[in-house]
Amino acid sequence: MSNGKQLRKLFGAQMKMMFREKQVWFWSLFFPIILMVLFMVIFGGGGSGGEFKASIAVVKSNANATSDMLENQLRQVTVFEWKSEQPVDKEKADTWIKDEDVDAVIILPASEDIKLLELVVNKENEQSTTTQAIRGILDQFVQQTNYAVAGVEPTFKVEMQSVSNGSEDLSYVDFLLTGMIALSVAQGGLFGMVDMVEMRRKGLLKRLKMTPVKMGLFGIGGMMVRFVLGVIQIVFLTVIGVFGFGANLHLDVSTLVVAFFIGTLAFNALGYLFSSFSKSIEAYMGMANIASFLMMFLSGIFFPTEGFPDWLQPVSHVLPLTYFVNGMRDGMVYGSGIATGEFWEGIAILGAWGIVAFGIGLLIYRKGKAEVR
Amino acid sequence: MSILEVKGLRKSFGTVKAVEEISFSVEAGEVFTIIGPNGAGKTTTLEMIEGLQTPDSGTVTIDGLTWAKNSDQIKYRIGVQPQSSAMFELLTVEENLDLFASFYPRSKQASEVLEMINLTNHRGKRVKSLSGGQRQRLAIGLAMISDPQIIFLDEPTTGLDPQARRNIWDIVLKLKELGKTTILTTHYMEEAEKLSDRVCIVDQGRIVSLDTPAALIDRLTKEREVRLHFQDGENAAIDTEEVAKEMSTVVRTAREGQALKLWSIQPEETLYGVFGFTKERGYRVEQVSIREMSLEDVFIAFTGKEWRD
Description:
heterodimer, A: 373 residues, mainly alpha, D-Maltodextrin-Binding Protein, domain 2, 2 domains, 14 helices, 64% helix, B: 309 residues, alpha/beta, Rossmann fold, four-stranded antiparallel sheet, 11 helices, transmembrane (chain A)
């Protein structure tokens, strides 16, 4: 039988095995998806796309020209959602604040002479970002009103803009999405070689050696299956990130393909290395878990590594996941990379990890063969 | 010409000598059984023949080929069912056969093998959900998918119930009909006796004895055990024992209640005399039997060890 046909058969068989293994579905898809959704909900500002809203109540105890004017102006502030369309009395507003039904209560001046706008918040939320924001908006609002009353145009204005190297609208959601994609592809490799341990333990490797099958083709077939799984992971996570959380992508396909290809190979090589000296599944899983957890937090998957203490920085500059996630971000959100030296430097380090891990793994397997009972 | 020639095999693991000196040859079409206690060197010997272990010294020649020079050619000619019966658990019976078939330049149709191992009705079942007997049959099926000349079956019936064991025997007999050579190892004497053309008893890394089952039993001893059970009380047995002790063909006797055991070098002669006496006295004999010597007796005689199951 020709190599091509044998490879097709081996690929087909390993595809079937992967899709029939429920564990693969859980760890490769559901787990990263759940993790990503949790992180995005907690740190990504929910599904509203980051737009700020605050619910308020307005108290107007005594209608007068000033309070009418301020009320009308307040209605123009779109980020305020009025709990009740009309102003309410003080008692009602107090109850709402205590029950946290509203974020804040604004008390309009009771007479034309009083030039004071009162802001009431729940004591528990005094330091919350929402309170700070409402305070800021009100300050701005009062200032604008003052200018309007005085009839002057403000001379200076501040306009804030966050800048990243690439797309202007890089948000935490984009950062996290690409991090999760890199993490799940890497974990696919780190955990995926558990089959090898199982095959050796059950004697399947030995059984295959009694046939003329080319083990190299078996390995290539297995890698092709990993690439398919990696593509499925990228597609699923991207779809959820983009449509569920409004992530913005700037794809650079050639950068993405290079990073994905080298990264998948490197992390599978690491898995292969773990499998070469693990006598049991438990030993292998322990090893893969340690590696995965260390890298997850030290490689800038969830948070940028720039925030790490100085002594920790060199560690993240050694780990392969750092370079993999950077490469994937180059290809997915920065929309650049393939032309820069920095990108290729990262790919080279990633590749070196892969080659060294595979080489050591192969040596251990070769040596182990001689010691088989 | 012999299809398998094994000469002067030796293998040590550290200080442990697993195989000290094993030589035999197997003719095409034979069922050749290797028996021996655990640690006798059976598995090591098989693995050296199958190319999984390199002997410290000695040669293995399969169909005129050697592992060092023609490993792929040998792999096309042999089929192995290892003790662990490892296969792809998540694939179905038929997918396993198909996949293994793709490893060889020439192979049988999966359907043909399914028929032979009687798994046609379970072809779509995943290996995971097969019973022990079905698994074992599939393992044998995988060994014969390439239509090999020699098939190695390493303890194919260990741990199976009697019916499942019989199914495996049927397969071995079918293989023999097809003119295949089978190298078998087993724990069951009955199996070796029933299936083999020749039996090789291995102990402590050496061949203790090698011959046809019948010849081995013959060579062991001429004594046969004759059992009689009397209907009319203990006295009949006591009287008959007295008479039997006087006979020249009887070596020794033993009695337990109405049951009498005689060890005779000529059972027919002995029984003739015994029945003459009982007829004269009018003693009624309920049961008579001559126990067959089994390979188990041979094994114990040659190795001095109890047979363990």
